[in-house]
Amino acid sequence: MNPRLVLAFAASLLFGAAHAGTVQISVTDKDGKPAADVVVLVDPATKVVATPAAAPVVIAQENLRFAPFLTVVPVGSTLRFVNRDGYDHHVRSTPSGPLGSMPSVKNFEYRLDATKAPASSPYDDYKPAPVSRKKAGASIAEVKVDQAGPIGLGCHLHASMRGQVYVSETPWFAKTDANGVAILQGVPEGAIEVNLWHPDQLQEQSPMRLQLGAAPLKTSGQLNFTPRPRRG
Ligand SMILES: [Cu+2]
After folding, report:
1. With bands split at pLDDT 50, 70 and 90, how would you rate the model's confidence at 231?
2. Distance (Å) from CA 153 to ligand 1 centroid
3. Ligand 1 geometric centre to CA of 154 (Å)
4. What is the whole-number distance in angstroms between the Cα of residue 89 and the centre of ligand 1?
5. Is the dihedral of CA 52, 58, 61, 66 positive or negative?
6. Distance 101 CA to ligand 1 centre (A)
7. What is the pLDDT of residue 164?
8. Residue 226, class by beta-carbon neighbours within 10 Å (0-12 exposed, 13-18 middle, 19+ buried)?
9. What's the chain's average pLDDT?
10. Ligand 1 centre from 38 Cα, in Å?
């Protein structure tokens, strides 16, 4: 075990064990309906900066979509974009929000070649040399995200392709499921601040200040708007 891991383990024992709790939050939209794909960020009184994900976090381009639509990663992580379609895509960072009001915390643009082999033809042997591409087999691109905040995702070739990344500074982050529920474990007990973020929001959500004890904390939150249903 390397010394950094030992330290991290010791720290997890200090913060964990008897002094960590669970937060379960149910988020609704302004109309009271469950809100999916809401980023939930929990900060204890003494802020802790997240450790980057140990391995690249995969965002696929599949069936003309980013999958998953929303990805939340700890700051310093590496995103790995993988084109799994039989046609080329792009991936580029875009501002977030309906009016593009939230600038991306990282700017990048990559072309991602098709991965599925085209249907074979009996005349394959007679084909001229393939048209040269920027990089052979570049259906994967990686980018390190070193600043917390939103990154919208788009594709030059397919305007309908939209995705979203949120880079979290706090190690305690989650996204709500289809029922609007997110569960965060191992949160240090004591005063906590819970922040919600939705890719379609025009205004920031008010932070919630709560007290976390040994018992799991069940709470609820409500967005200050009602997101439009996502197409598809
Ligand atoms: Cu595309």
Report:
1. low
2. 11
3. 8
4. 4
5. negative
6. 23
7. 98
8. middle
9. 88
10. 24
Tell me, what amino acid is at 22?
A: T
Going from the Cα of 144 to the center of ligand 1, the distance in angstroms, rounded, reads 21
89 in Cβ contact with 83 (< 8 Å): yes
Q: Which two tokens stand for residue 46?
A: 């003494």
CA 162–ligand 1 middle distance (angstroms)? 9
pLDDT of residue 13 exceeding 80, the answer is: no
Cα of 61 from ligand 1 centre, angstroms: 8
Could you tell me the domains of the chain? 20-48+170-232 (2.60.40.10), 52-169 (2.60.40.420)
* pLDDT (mean) for 107-130: 67
Judged by DSSP in three states, 227 sits in coil
Letter string b/e over residues 62-98, b meaning 16 or more CB atoms within 10 A of that residue's CB? eeebbeebbbbbbbbbebebbbebeebbbbebbebbe
Residue type present at position 149: G
pLDDT at position 9:
54
Q: How far apart are the C-alpha atoms of 56 and 79, rounded to whole Å?
A: 5
Burial class (CB in 10 A: 0-12, 13-18, 19+), 155: buried
Distances (CA, A) of 136 to 89, 114, 133, 139: 14, 11, 6, 9
> 20 Cβ partners below 8 Å, 6+ apart?
185, 186, 187, 188, 189
Nearest to 174 by CA among 200, 195, 145: 195
